[in-house]
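### Sample
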Amino acid sequence: MKLKKFILVIFIIANQILISQVKVVLDSVYSPSLNSFKHFHIVLPENYFKTEERFIAIYLLHGYGGSHQDWVNKTSLVKYLKDYNFIIITPEADNGWYTNSPTLKNKNYEDYIIKDLIPYVEKKYRVISTRHGRIIAGLSMGGYGAIKFALKYPNMFLLAGSFSGAFNWEQILERGQGQIIQSLKDAFGEAKTQHWHKNNVFSLVDSVAIGNLPYLYISVGKDDNIIGLLEANRNLVEKLQKKNINYEYHELPGSHTWSFWDMEIKNFLRRVSEINSLTW
C-alpha cells in the first residue's frame, strides 16, 4: 500500500514539473498540397496548461538542408520561451523554398504552410486565429519564405522576421553548384517567368499595396559568406525604404551560423513581446 502511495506521489510530482515548464510536442499534419504527412514541433508555454486563453503563434521556418528539429535542437529557443507566452511552430518543409513548384507534382510548399499547416494548428491548439495572432519568421531559406509570405498574404500576418534571409537565390542559381541548384530550379522554374516574379521578394515589394502590411524585422550578419546574401538584404531594405514600408534592419556581427541565429531568435522574441510599440 505504501509503495502504491509512493508511486502516486511521484506521478503527481512528475506531472506538476511537466506542466510548470515549456513543453515541446512532436506532431504531424497530412498535407494534400504535398500528398504526405509532415512533422512539426510545437512549443507550448507554461501558461498553456494553467489557463484557457489563446496565444500568439510564431511559425519558425528552417533553412536549406534543415528540418523541423533545427530551431529546438540547435538554439536555446526553449530556454528563451520560458520568459514569454508564445506558441512556437517549427514545420518540416524539406528544401522546397516555401514555394509551389511549377514543374513537380505534390511539391506545393507554399500551400502546405498557408492552406494545410496553419489551419491544422489553429483547429487543434489554442492559438489566436486572426492576423493579430500570427507571426512568421525564419533563417536563410526560411527568412526568404517568411518575408515572401508577409508580402503575398499581408492579411494573414502581423509581423514577419528574417535572419540571414536568402533573397539572393537568383545569384545562387547563376554561381552556385550542387543539389541546391536543382532545388531552386524545382521551386522557381525558368528564369524571369510569371511564376519566378510571383515568388521574388523584390518583385513583390514593387507590386504590393502599402496598406496594411505586416511589420518586417530583417537581420543579417556582417560577415555572412553566402554569395550575394548580405548585398541582397541591403538591396531589399533599400526597396522597403523607398516604398515607405515599415521595417527594422539589423546588420550585426556574425555570419551564416547557428550562433548568429541563436542570438537573433532571442532578440526577435524580445521584439515580439514589445509588439504594442511597433508602428504600422
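DSSP finds eleven helices and eight strands in the chain. This sample (S-formylglutathione hydrolase FrmB) is used throughout the tutorial notebook.
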